[in-house]
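step=predict obj=NBD/HSP70 family sugar kinase n=411
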Amino acid sequence: MRGSSMTDIGAFNEKLVLQTIRSAPDGIGQAEVVRRSQLSRQAVSLIARRLLADGLVEQAGTRISGPGKPHTLLRVVADARLAIGVHLDPAHIAVVICDLAARPVARTTLAPPTEDPRADLERVAGAIAELSRSLGASGPVPGEGEAVLSTHRRLLGIGIAAPAGLDADAGILRNPPWIPGWRDVPVVDALSAVTGLPATLDKDTNAALTGEIWTRHLDAAQTILYLYVGHGVGSAVSGGGRVHRGGSTQAGEIGHLPIGRADRICSCGRHGCQSLYTDAHVLVAAAREAGIAMSGKVGTTAALHALATAAADGSEAARAIIGSHASALGEAILILAGVHDPQRIIIGGPTWPALRDVGEAEVRRVLGDWLEDTAGVLESSHLGDDVGAIGAASLFLEQELAPGTGAPVGT
Ligand SMILES: [Zn+2]
């Protein structure tokens, strides 16, 4: 998380008011903003005027509640500002431009990272430029007076999501095992330099959870456990609306979590590590062994798609392979649920859409007692294949626009 500032929003109170208005997509009255933000009426009124003038907020009609005059509703103008999300995944590079609700307004998918990070980052910068141009061509954002901004001025910055093996504070990919050619690559500085935009970096797992919290306005008081199912399975956890990153952005790396099985031995020397049962290549190998149709030498993504299609078409072998993956995942989740005591468990990640039809029921079965005892919620992410890129954009939105953990000042 590198330092970058958003001078036209800046102050904590302003971010707090913006967040309060944002959490009510259908509009919210000023009195309710005062109540929820616990700021003074004068402060809210002043900030609301400034947000209206900046075009970040608009008036959304009036609401009559009880006696007295009807009050004006305020609503965030979702496309008043935009953030770019870049997801470096072993299977592909996804680039999106999202509005303030983290909804993609433009997107593209590039070939996977190679052993040449410099050339790859040039491809990413090219894609960002192209997507920005495509939005610019559609004309200025509807608004009034000075609120009309060009696409480039609306772009706040870039969030980058990448697999584990990175230093988020320094903005550097250190030694990501899933992207072997990328050692000590300063992605934040590199993309900032070519685009002129501030950037921030975090793990794909943390980005996905941030995207979930940002897009759904999830209750900040809840503890949320996220399982990111991609080439491997990683986890992320949040409390108080904040993702827990740990001391070196390594929190939630659960590949070597022993899930209580003894039939396979890991390269780390122990038995039953989670990754032995849930890595994508393990699934693909099992599918090939079972003779599930995969024409020629296809990539992991295509192979998983073929496996999911076979399962949907009623192949018992395909359903058993996905079920076995999901039961191992469920056992890992059960251990993590004991550690973190979450109220909500979300499963997502780029591979999960292919597995969820069979997999979610199996995870639910393994977690049966826990779900019953705790009344916890288990669900699949609604963000789909673009979860990493949308999450990456959310990282930037959250860094720039969320009020953070400090105390309100000047109330
Ligand atoms: Zn291991």
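step=describe
The chain has 14 helices and 15 strands.
step=end
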